[in-house]
Design goal:
mainly beta; seven-stranded mixed β-sheet; four-stranded antiparallel β-sheet
């Protein structure tokens, strides 16, 4: 089982980044993929999730209207498009892939820094 995030980096306020979460090595009829973030000294916060099947999405109030979660046709990669980034979006972003009652996997995270 492998869950790997990518796409993080340094961006100026108002800029955009697209994070990717590539998952492999498992099968399930139903998955929920969530993006979390954690800034130094703060608790981990769920940012968004998407279901497969159904593509039901949900966002935290702090990112609603700025971030968009989506998945590719294979369902193996989930994206987090982040627009209008703010310094308070600076955090390490983690992908969590879970099948309720079956498994729950995390990636190592990718750093997003909004500064400039």
């Amino acid at each position: 089982v492998q869950v790997v995030e990518s796409g993080g980096g340094l961006v100026q306020p108002g800029g955009s980044l697209r994070l990717s979460c590539a998952a492999s090595g498992f099968t399930s009829d139903a998955l929920i993929t969530k993006w979390y973030r954690q800034a130094p000294g703060k608790e981990r916060e769920m940012v968004a999730f998407i279901t497969d099947p159904g593509d039901i999405t949900n966002y935290s109030d702090s990112v609603k209207g700025r971030f968009t979660i989506s998945r590719d046709n294979t369902g193996n990669t989930v994206y987090l498009q982040m627009n209008a980034l703010k310094p308070e979006d600076t955090a390490r972003y983690y992908c969590n892939v879970l099948a309720p009652g079956k498994f729950n996997f995390w990636g190592p995270g990718t750093q997003v820094t909004v500064s400039g």
